[in-house]
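hey
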């Protein structure tokens, strides 16, 4: 990560020895429409993003200029924290439906898999589907709230005006 003034770059290691770098900006979801940009106009989008990153080092700006792909707007969505629901007999949620959060916690996929395992175990351990769902939700809901609070805090820290210092403080405190 490289963060400053509510924007930055986030790199992710992918398979095949590739690294994907995301340009991250805290702004309205339809920022490109507000700026009169067509996301298929690669040059115009590149120029608009470069303008937002005025003052950044040329090495960092290379993540914007030296791409072999176009630009894709990928807004981040999250459910409100806490996100809970009133029990409905025989019906429940798991994965992103239960706890959609920003990827800044790094827990979304892990929680979805844990949800599935916990629900399966509850179905094995309980006599009825409704008893299983109730048992599963007793585990799921507190865990989801804690993870969502962490994700919301992490993204707020990362994209605060002093995001780099906030992330460093968080990492130092928790690792």
């Amino acid at each position: 990560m490289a963060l400053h003034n509510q924007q930055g770059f986030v790199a992710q290691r992918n398979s095949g020895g590739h690294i994907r770098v995301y340009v991250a900006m805290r702004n309205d979801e339809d920022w490109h429409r507000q700026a009169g940009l067509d996301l298929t106009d690669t040059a115009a989008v590149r120029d608009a993003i470069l303008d937002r990153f005025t003052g950044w080092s040329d090495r960092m700006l290379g993540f914007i200029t030296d791409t072999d792909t176009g630009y894709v707007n990928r807004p981040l969505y999250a459910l409100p924290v806490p996100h809970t629901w009133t029990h409905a007999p025989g019906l429940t949620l798991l994965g992103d439906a239960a706890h959609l959060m920003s990827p800044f916690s790094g827990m979304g996929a892990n929680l979805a898999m844990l949800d599935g395992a916990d629900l399966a175990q509850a179905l094995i351990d309980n006599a009825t589907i409704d008893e299983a769902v109730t048992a599963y939700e007793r585990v799921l809901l507190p865990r989801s709230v804690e993870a969502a609070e962490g994700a919301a805090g992490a993204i707020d820290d990362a994209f605060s005006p002093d995001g780099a210092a906030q992330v460093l403080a968080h990492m130092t405190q928790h690792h």
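The CA atoms of residues 35 and 58 lie 24 Å apart. Residues 129-158 form the longest helix (30 residues).
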